[in-house]
Task: structure prediction
Amino acid sequence: MMKILVTGTAGFIGFYTAVKLLELGHEVVGLDSINDYYDVNLKFGRLAESGIARDAVAYGKQVQSSCYAHYRFVQLKLEDKAALDALFAEERFDAVCNLAAQAGVRYSLENPAAYTDSNIVGFLNILEACRHFGVKNLCFASSSSVYGLNETMPFSTNHGVNHPVSLYAATKKSNELMAHAYAHLYGIQCTGLRFFTVYGPWGRPDMAPFIFTKAAFAGETIKVFNNGKMKRDFTYIDDIVEGVVRVILNPCVSDKNWNSLEANPASSSAPYKIYNIGNSDSVELLEFIQAVENAAGVTIQKNFMPIQPGDVVATFADVTELEQDMDYRPNTSVHEGMQKTVAWYRDFYKIT
Result:
């Protein structure tokens, strides 16, 4: 059993990842800045679900979970290098899963500094802490946003990702480059995961599944671009976390067949690997909306609109390598996933 630092545990994927690792018997220290990018009540709700009381949380103070004997949480910013180094020095982690980041594409237009602080400076601090405190196993969150102007479907890690179209995507591409440098220089086993659209109970309120669910119960009208003919790779949270945990427990190694003359951008002669993590399939937007409607038992009012400039009709992930290397098999349908999501939404927001 390992001692694992999971950052972003007040966030959606981080919360589930910590709980899954605890259920497998590992010791987990969770970390999150609990910023106000979206409703902090949802973040504290996730923490409470994992046994971390809201009134016990204070910056820099470790809080013991009331649900899991081997879980502690600390509110901390990744850009706080001194505090982060002190945590690494005290805990001596066996592995780190860095899921903390400033998320959101549109918000990066309004507040770019938040992205460089958390996603660049913060990630550098994680890498430096791994380097100086002997952590050789690092899993980190990248994003499907790195594919940018690439329109070749399905998105493959063998494709180039040199043309991001948002600062958020640029910071995630930077994380991949930084991780490779540290894998090459210091032998840290760095595995990056490019997440696609993840949904489920406790999901982010700025994501389409949550927005659609909220609209269903609030009687709001949603905008449906390209007349609903868009296709997206929606993946249920349990399937995603199964993949994340397998990557943490099976750190990458160097690719002995890697050839610099025909370089595979997803691997290296260093211990470095990039995977797509998604559903390996795409669902038409109207079908997904129908899954929300069926689960909520209402019809959502829709405003059909043309495709937005710069948007793409379809995105979905080629997850072949993750399937081969980790036996990753996502199998939750959008209809089953949205039934569980809507049930949680009703309970959390007290909707009868």
